[in-house]
Design goal:
Layout lengths: L2 H14 L12 H10 L5 H14 L3 H5 L3 H8 L5 H19 L7 H5 L6 H12 L8 H10 L7 H11 L5 H14 L29
Helix pairs in contact: 2-8, 5-6, 9-11
């Protein structure tokens, strides 16, 4: 995809996606961090169903650090990998209290030192909470990047590197959410809605299916 087409690509997405932000419900950076950890291999909608109860009982790192994974599990048991996630978020809360005075560090290395936080989770938080122009390559971003020709690669790492190079600087802050929401609602895994796609003409996907409107 040439530079002019990449610019048009994001211009078109910005017209179709008016609020490029996370769909995880949260009231502060701590809640967002916990919600992101819980969202691994789980939909945002599923996470949003359990976090009101979770955050109602443990609204701060200090409160969460004082409980047990077993207690947390009663609030998140419907999520995939719930036992592991329960352990991770309690450990994360304890580390936040012990090493960061209960604050969320605005640093990728410090974030990735927390249990359950990898590069993708750290990037989502840095982008959403702190406005860093970084892109977290999840399954939606990976698919859209490859399908459209924006950043083709066989691995997450390869797509990550190409996105950093290919996304125009003026779009880097919001590119993460534009690509996620495009993949979640339009460029779907099994059957992309090409007829409703705002970047149809910029996309290089060879198997486009345009439904005829009677």
């Amino acid at each position: 995809m040439r530079a002019a087409k990449r610019e048009q690509f994001f211009q078109n997405l910005s017209k179709a996606i008016l609020e490029p932000t996370t769909e995880l419900q949260h009231a502060n950076t701590f809640e967002l961090l916990i919600a992101i950890i819980l969202s691994a291999q789980t939909t945002d909608a599923a996470v949003n169903k359990v976090t009101p109860s979770l955050f109602g009982n443990y609204p701060t790192p200090q409160k969460l650090a004082q409980t047990t994974p077993e207690e947390v599990l009663t609030h998140i048991k419907t999520l995939g990998l719930a036992p592991t996630k329960a352990k991770n978020i309690v450990k994360t809360a304890r580390q936040l209290c012990e090493h960061h005075q209960g604050e969320i560090p605005e640093d990728s290395e410090a974030l990735q030192a927390l249990p359950g936080v990898g590069r993708k989770t750290a990037n989502v938080l840095l982008n959403t909470a702190f406005g860093h122009p970084v892109i977290a390559v999840d399954t939606h971003v990976f698919r859209v990047s490859n399908r459209t020709g924006l950043a083709c690669g066989k691995t997450v790492e390869e797509v990550d590197r190409k996105l950093a190079r290919n996304v125009p600087p003026n779009w880097r802050k919001d590119a993460h959410h534009y690509l996620i929401l495009q993949g979640r609602y339009t460029c779907k895994a099994r059957k992309p809605l090409c007829g409703k796609c705002p970047v149809l003409h910029e996309c290089s996907y060879p198997n486009k299916e345009i439904q005829k409107v009677n």
